[in-house]
Design goal:
This is UDP-2,4-diacetamido-2,4, 6-trideoxy-beta-L-altropyranose hydrolase. It is an enzyme of class 3 (hydrolase). The chain has 362 residues and is of the alpha/beta class. The protein folds into 2 domains: 186 residues, 3-Layer(aba) Sandwich (Rossmann fold); 169 residues, Glycogen Phosphorylase B (Rossmann fold), CATH 3.40.50.2000. It is built from 13 helices and 13 strands. The strands form 2 sheets. It has a 7-stranded parallel β-sheet with strand order 3-2-1-4-5-6-7, sandwiched between helices. Strands 10-9-8-11-12-13 form a 6-stranded parallel β-sheet, with helices on both faces. α1 crosses α13, α6 packs parallel to α7 and α6 packs across α11. The protein is globular and about 60 Å long. It starts with a strand and ends with a helix.
Length: 362
């Protein structure tokens, strides 16, 4: 079957939506299906990653203006040009193709967009995290901890299949392959390898803020620190310059293609409370979560409540809280590994692909 994806990446919204769609697409292609991605041309769109992954790219035209303030869902400004223009561009890019599935992962898209687009696709799947708008879909996925079907009961058609929780988290299968090795390391060692990663964009340079605070922590000079950033991260040059000015043992990696191995080799982590949270859970990596966007707050609160992570919920508190939080992270590492690893086994993409296959055959 043919599966079309409508998602975006940008310096503002980051790359997480696109990357989890790519994970599902890779699993579908592994099963012999075809995948095509429709993304809007804009700064930080990561379109080259789609082509490098071997999937077909439909690059929608660049639009500079945003839709009117107050119209559509809460993140409507993420959908450049508004619903009607975006649907028109999407349908035009499809041409004569009629996909068996349309997968939508975009906070700026709601039922009004989906109702128009589904006329050109047999079925619609929506990936969401917010439960803040209505959808017209056959399948909805919310991979976040603490979410349930009840959260979407009034937002999707009654016959929609709703998949909830990290059991369905869209992780590349390499994370499942590294899981046993990683858990064994983290439960049997007390190493000093610290991983710092705030996604592929990190527009506000949270990495730099963390490094600055970390340089003031007692014992930080004894850590072996790995910083991972996107190859095109807008603040990469600033971080590189900062590393020459602080007394820390830091390795800077960019454009990493073996993230599961990097995480499996780490003993502790500092990172954002986004989709990468489930990768760290799968590998049992004890993590200090920072809330770098408001839509990450619920994830961070749920992980901390379940004993699966520690958190700093206000970036302004990083300079004053980081040292003490990092010390607690090291002390509680075994408990954090056990609790986090129970939440996600890294086979969510297989389960979601199974659902699409099942519904298509049914």
């Amino acid at each position: 079957m043919l599966v079309a994806f409508r998602t975006d990446a940008s310096f503002e919204m980051g790359s997480g939506h696109l990357m989890r769609c790519l994970t599902l697409a890779d699993e579908l292609v592994r099963r012999g299906h075809g995948c095509v991605f429709a993304v809007r041309c804009q700064p930080g769109d990561h379109s080259q990653i789609i082509e490098d992954s071997g999937h077909e790219l439909l690059l929608l035209p660049r639009i500079n203006e945003e839709c009117e303030s107050g119209s559509g869902p809460g993140h409507a400004h993420w959908l450049r040009g508004g619903t009607d223009r975006d649907v028109k561009d999407f349908i035009g890019a499809l041409g004569k193709r009629r996909p068996q599935w349309l997968v939508v992962d975009h906070y700026g898209i709601d039922s009004s967009w989906e109702q128009k687009a589904r006329q050109y696709c047999e079925r619609v799947m929506v990936i969401d995290d917010l439960a803040d708008r209505e959808h017209v879909c056959d399948v909805l996925l919310d991979q976040n901890l603490g979410k349930s079907k009840a959260d979407y009961a009034a937002l999707v058609p009654k016959n929609s299949v709703v998949l909830c929780g990290p059991h369905f988290a869209l992780l590349r299968l390499e994370f499942n392959r590294w899981r046993e090795n990683s858990l064994r390391r983290k439960l049997s060692m007390r190493g000093n390898r610290l991983l710092i990663n705030f996604g592929g964009v990190d527009q506000n340079n949270v990495t730099g803020s963390v490094l600055g605070a970390l340089a003031q922590c007692p014992g930080a000079a004894d850590l072996k620190i790995t910083v991972v950033m996107g190859a095109n991260a807008p603040r990469l040059d600033e971080v590189e310059a900062q590393l020459g000015q602080i007394n820390l043992n830091v390795e800077l990696l960019t454009g990493v293609s073996n993230m599961a191995e990097v995480m499996a080799s780490a003993d502790l982590a500092i990172g954002a409370a986004g989709a990468t949270s489930w990768e760290r859970c799968c590998l049992g990596l004890p993590t200090l979560l920072l809330v770098i966007a408001e839509n990450q707050r619920i994830i961070a609160e749920a992980l901390c409540h379940n004993g699966a992570a520690l958190g700093i919920f206000d970036l302004k508190q990083v300079p004053t809280q980081l040292c003490e939080s990092l010390s607690r992270l090291s002390t509680q590492r075994a408990s954090l590994t056990r609790h986090s690893s129970r939440l996600c086994d890294g086979r969510g993409s297989v389960r979601v692909a199974d659902q699409l296959n099942e519904d298509n055959c049914g």
